User: Which sequence fits this backbone?
């Protein structure tokens, strides 16, 4: 095992813990630390310069004096003295430590320097640090509470792992998980994340036997690519649900909090989804979604079908509306299923999916079984207002669940006193119970999204042939950039580079008319703006006039012309690819034109990506209708467009010296595409 | 009092109730009806053809036999016999009735006919009917349960009125209101709403003394304009929260449910907001928002400022993100406030708003008071994880609330056993407590949205001078339509209608060049498509060529030309106005162009509207950035554009014979607008 990974496990599941700064004074953090360790099953070593005895334990004057390599060190000392203490812990062969103190990156330059020093120590030695500026973590499998967050020791144990950038959210999520009837295996507050970040914590929980699902709260993401790669490895093994804060510009307050800048929400969300995570919008959804997935997952599938069974049609409408808004499939049931259900229910109810049972009765379980038997249905979402006189769901549903062999979630509402025992009884049968129609719908959405994400993750990343990386020199002009595109399989118009007007006139004779004449010079950034692009030139006179105009453009260096066959009209899109400082190679597609730009109608993915992901990007565009033959124009070649996206992404990803690629516009036709302008930096 | 309104009150708050179809057989609806009336404070008359005694009450062979005009009749009989029973009730002078039975519009043509007959009876007589196909209603002020919805008699009383199109949602919302620690005054399930619809129920609850806030659930809206007008009258008196189902196309199932087609969600939502309602997304939000507003409302204000005080920064980020996403103002605190807060808190916390107290302590209440004292702050949103050892919120917050004199909502999370008593204690002090950071944020959003909606409602609807209605004849051609626009203050290009080529050439001499030549004929719907529009004509030759082309267009009737000064380039928008079958006169604005159309980037309002509402429409456009000088182009004249919207809306609203108006495009400049094409039907 790598030492860094080994030390990660020593830190989170230690057999020995030292408290540096242990104190007998009850108001001190070092005192509370010792108190919070009271249920820990391993050895505890208080460390205080004066030695003696603290809370009935022998105290040691220093870590060195303990004389053993401790697994985890709790630093309950001021920020100024931490670095020296970390150095001592490393000398003693300790595994890792938790730095609760604030006063680091969130306070400015000096704090950043101290943090960087600790980071360097960790990198050199393999010692692992959680924090600084964290409320710590707890691990129920070893009875360890290494945190001073309020009430954290009252969070009930269970099988959901929590990772939160903020210690407060760690606690909040834990209590919400409890509220929904579930428990927490391990809850980790990351704080400033100088060493251990979300990816490391994921890595740990992925291996933790007591954890069946992971809830992750993120603010900023410093090492986006690392998180992405780790997430891709983890989600096929265990479901991961993510709450990413920062849709709006809340950077000022956020930075004061954990010293992290909150980056683009869209990129963060896209990357996490692409890596197989399920994204949610609130702490409650975070807790509930992790709860649902800790009990069951669907097999990977592109668009799993949900069967809805409701005792009240109004609730059915609410659930259906939610599922459809989320793009989840609610398939019409097969004829045989409908016939089978019709026999079980009174006439006049709707039974095609949703299935409205009317006031639920003794057949409620059979109706569920019938819906579940439908080949289009992968999971059941069932709802009924609490009405024990009509149907005892605690008897009916566990039997139904056993017989159907497909995941099921249930939802109910009623007097608290009546539904609490029902909920508890159903949860004993591993049946997830939601407490409103919308929460139930969300449970269904989460099951479907997880399965769809895993399906996407299993699609092979297309390999496209790309040119020799060495061929991409600095400062490619438009012609050379287009030749690179052509070499990776993206069509460009036929063209000729001309050093003189004579060559240009010769080119006109060799090309299909009409042609376009463009200025070719690295001095010009926006050709159109300076009158450097002339289209629709059908004869020599027109070309000459165009060359005259181009010759008027003031230039220092050589003046060259690009004479190019004019492309037929088509839908214009933009493909761009950049290296994001956090997430690395990223590809973007959008429809061309001012309005599309003004509304930022783009879809993004990390590179490399599969063809099916590129096709998905197209469907995400608000202007997607334009691709399907808007107002009588032809349906465009989505496959060719998606392939171009994959090729551009691969080109960027495989050529580290390339920082940016832009095709603007790429014209898309009923068959094929043509790149009309290209930039490769 | 109008008989219909009087009968509405007799029905919902009756002093006497008859059960037609009362039965001694316990499985019968007529039996359950009598049982559910056991706590009713008024007189109860069972009606059954055989008379006798039922459940200890004397039964009458018919309504007529009772010999008194009963306030409310519960029809517990099959659909086929209802019409005759209603006729008898009318003859007896009864106030109204509840028809629980299904089998009406939701089942097809025959059911629709029966419903129409009942509707006609109601209109003629003033008798009021709730239903059919409803689970009924309950009114706690008279101890009345006129419903068979499961568990409905277990919903605790309080001050929130509930109106739900679906009986199931009526019950669900009631239980959710209870879950949040509040109660229901009156809960009404509308069902097929043959007579009493959402507007009538609103009207009743607006006058009901026991109701302080109203929660309304809607599926389809048949009489949109009536609902809109009623809502406008009600919301200034009592807050109304609306959950409108049907974002997605769920019409098939919806129609089977209450026989209502679900119309355009966007129009429904816009109309309700415009009428002062607060829109929410789920039954839980419906219950919670009504709860918040039943305790306090902010004074009407365009953009009320929210002060955020948190014990945990992570929760603060979540709350801030939510408020900003909802467009709610979170103002930076004044310098004096910041200085005051700084004295109360340890250094290193963020105190500009949100205010992060760090672990909350004894100063928590004082910090809240300091934030509330800021002139920019209209309401306080405070959050802290349950930590009684640090701060006893049940002592601190009621004191703070009293001292600040501004609305406050609080949120907390913790072990259920610990927070329940805290919640109860705070609720006794009329302090709303949310149980997650996001629910707390939503409470703040609801307060702000309600105040903003009431501010908008108080903006006077602009009056614009409009032409004599008689001047608008049928089939206005483009020229006449433009003259109408000019007469209501919307500029159009100078133009001349020409019967001959000579007139056209003369027109060229009289107008500013270049000009546009268009065909003018009611036979041509899309001028451009047939080559009927020629732009940029600077001289006689060009005009002649254009006239040649126009003369090639095959026509049956007379051929005329419209010669018009060509408008300078500018941003193109579309203004449209139609009469919606449900909501009546409605105005729409969108940016011109294929892409804007493909993404349906439009904003809508009911007519008439105020100038500030029209300006708000512009801000709602996704492409709003284009209005503000996109990429170096000039900032356009938003005021002139908004005024044009108001004028078009007023024109439609005040001229009943006009069914549709479209200006496409309207060109918008740095100063002023020009309508380039116009259609008035």
Assistant:
């Amino acid at each position: 095992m790598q030492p860094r990974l080994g030390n990660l496990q020593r830190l989170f599941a230690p057999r020995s813990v030292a408290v540096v700064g242990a104190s007998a004074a009850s108001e001190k953090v070092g005192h509370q630390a010792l108190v919070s360790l009271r249920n820990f099953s391993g050895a505890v070593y208080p460390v205080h310069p004066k030695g003696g005895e603290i809370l009935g334990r022998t105290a040691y004057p220093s870590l060195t004096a303990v004389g053993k390599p401790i697994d985890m060190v709790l630093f309950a000392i001021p920020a100024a003295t931490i670095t020296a203490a970390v150095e001592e812990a490393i000398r003693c062969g300790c595994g890792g430590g938790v730095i609760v103190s604030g006063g680091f990156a969130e306070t400015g330059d000096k704090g950043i320097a101290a943090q960087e020093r600790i980071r360097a120590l960790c990198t050199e030695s393999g010692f692992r640090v959680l924090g600084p500026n964290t409320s710590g973590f707890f691990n129920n499998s070893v009875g360890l509470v290494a945190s001073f967050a309020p009430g954290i020791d009252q969070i009930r144990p269970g099988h959901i792992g929590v990772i939160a950038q903020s210690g407060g959210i760690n606690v909040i999520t834990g209590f919400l998980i409890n509220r929904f009837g579930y428990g927490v295996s391990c809850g980790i507050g990351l704080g400033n994340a100088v060493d251990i970040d979300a990816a490391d914590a994921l890595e740990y929980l992925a291996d933790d036997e007591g954890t069946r699902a992971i809830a992750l709260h993120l603010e900023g993401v410093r090492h986006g690519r690392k998180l992405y790669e780790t997430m891709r490895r983890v989600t096929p093994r265990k479901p991961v649900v993510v709450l990413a804060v920062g849709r709006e510009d809340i950077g000022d307050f956020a930075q004061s909090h954990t010293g992290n800048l909150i980056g683009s929400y869209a990129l963060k969300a896209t990357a996490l989804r692409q890596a197989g995570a399920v994204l949610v919008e609130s702490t409650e959804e975070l807790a509930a979604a992790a709860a649902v997935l800790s009990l069951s997952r669907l097999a990977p599938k592109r668009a799993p079908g949900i069967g809805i069974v409701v005792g009240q049609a109004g609730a059915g409408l609410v659930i259906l509306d939610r599922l459809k808004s989320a793009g989840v499939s609610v398939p019409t049931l097969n004829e045989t299923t409908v016939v089978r259900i019709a026999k079980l229910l009174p006439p006049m109810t709707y039974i095609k999916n949703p299935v409205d049972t009317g006031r639920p009765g003794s057949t409620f379980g059979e109706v569920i079984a019938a819906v579940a038997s439908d080949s289009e249905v992968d999971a059941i979402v069932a709802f009924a207002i609490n009405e024990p006189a009509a149907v005892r769901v605690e008897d009916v549903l566990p039997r139904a669940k056993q017989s159907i062999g497909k995941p099921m979630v249930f939802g109910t509402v009623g007097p608290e006193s009546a539904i609490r025992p029902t909920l508890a009884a159903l949860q004993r049968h591993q049946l997830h119970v939601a407490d409103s129609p919308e929460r139930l719908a969300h449970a269904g959405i989460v099951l479907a999204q997880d399965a769809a994400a895993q399906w996407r993750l299993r699609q092979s990343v297309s390999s496209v042939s790309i040119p020799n990386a060495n061929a991409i020199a600095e400062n490619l002009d438009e012609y050379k950039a287009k030749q690179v595109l052509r070499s990776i399989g993206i069509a460009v118009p036929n063209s000729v580079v001309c050093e003189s007007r004579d060559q240009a006139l010769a080119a006109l004779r060799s090309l299909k008319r009409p042609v376009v004449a463009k200025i070719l010079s690295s001095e010009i950034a926006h050709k159109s703006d300076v009158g450097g692009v002339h289209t629709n030139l059908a004869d020599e006179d027109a070309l000459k006039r165009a060359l005259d105009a181009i010759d008027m453009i003031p230039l220092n260096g050589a003046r060259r012309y690009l004479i190019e066959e004019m492309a037929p009209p088509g839908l214009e899109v933009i493909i761009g690819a950049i290296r994001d400082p956090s997430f690395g190679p990223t590809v973007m597609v959008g429809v061309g034109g001012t309005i599309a730009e003004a509304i930022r109608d783009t879809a993004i993915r990390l590179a490399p990506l599969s063809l099916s992901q590129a096709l998905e990007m197209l469907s995400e565009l608000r202007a997607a209708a334009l691709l399907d033959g808007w107002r009588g124009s032809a349906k465009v070649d989505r496959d060719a467009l998606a392939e171009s996206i994959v090729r551009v992404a691969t080109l960027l990803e495989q050529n580290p010296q390339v920082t940016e690629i832009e095709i603007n516009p790429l014209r898309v036709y009923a068959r094929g595409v043509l790149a009309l302008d290209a930039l490769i930096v």
About this structure: Chain A touches chain B through 85 residues (CB under 8 Å). Chain A has four domains: 1-133, 296-458, 494-565, 571-680. Chain A is about 40% helix and 20% strand. The mean pLDDT of chain A is 91.
